[in-house]
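Field log, afternoon session.

UNIT: design team B
ACTIVITY: writing a sequence onto a fixed backbone
BACKBONE:
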């Protein structure tokens, strides 16, 4: 079996495992934010933190590990495995000088998927806003239910509330499109050279 195919096969298998375990780990960790005694569970977050929204991510990860060690361990191991695949792919590229677009796609795709998840989650918070009508741009002003809000308005809301992750989401999406277009043009040029 070709090494490139083997690397991509491992990548395609580990990526869903990573994001499923991320979902379960995040879900478990979110209970720390709504817990009454959240200050008793923090290790790295300063005790002077005033609200549960100031809890460091490492404390959320430790909390998730305490209450759901299996999925948290799978999550951490899948990150390590994914990084290992990327390093092996990078070493392969350095040796053979081929597969740069695939390597870039391997790196950018998890970033895109993670920021998509964060942006989507942040956009869903518009439903609990008291004055959600003021955030509507594309949705009709006449709607009365938060379930009728257009997805584009949810994304715009997320970009206001979490501009860094939304910007990374948009840039990684554009980068992936650029990689795909570049690969298509490379293949077209390659086929033209074969025919001439």
């Amino acid at each position: 079996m070709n090494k490139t195919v083997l690397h991509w096969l491992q990548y395609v298998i580990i990526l869903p495992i990573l994001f499923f375990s991320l979902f379960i780990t995040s879900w478990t960790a979110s209970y720390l934010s709504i817990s009454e005694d959240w200050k008793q569970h923090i290790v790295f977050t300063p005790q002077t933190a005033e609200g549960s929204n100031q809890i460091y991510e490492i404390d959320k990860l430790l909390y998730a590990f305490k209450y759901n060690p299996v999925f948290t361990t799978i999550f951490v191991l899948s990150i390590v495995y994914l990084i290992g695949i990327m390093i092996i792919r990078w070493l392969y590229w350095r040796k053979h000088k081929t597969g740069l677009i695939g390597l870039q796609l391997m790196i950018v795709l998890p970033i895109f998927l993670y920021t998509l998840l964060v942006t989507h989650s942040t956009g869903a918070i518009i439903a609990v806003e008291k004055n959600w009508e003021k955030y509507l741009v594309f949705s009709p002003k006449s709607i009365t239910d938060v379930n009728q809000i257009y997805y584009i308005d949810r994304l715009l809301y997320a970009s206001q509330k979490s501009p860094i992750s939304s910007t990374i989401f948009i840039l990684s999406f554009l980068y992936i499109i650029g990689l795909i277009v570049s690969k298509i043009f490379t293949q077209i040029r390659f086929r033209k050279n074969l025919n001439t």
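LOG NOTE: Helices lie at 3-34, 57-67, 69-96, 100-124, 151-161, 163-195.
NEXT ACTIVITY: expression trials, pending approval
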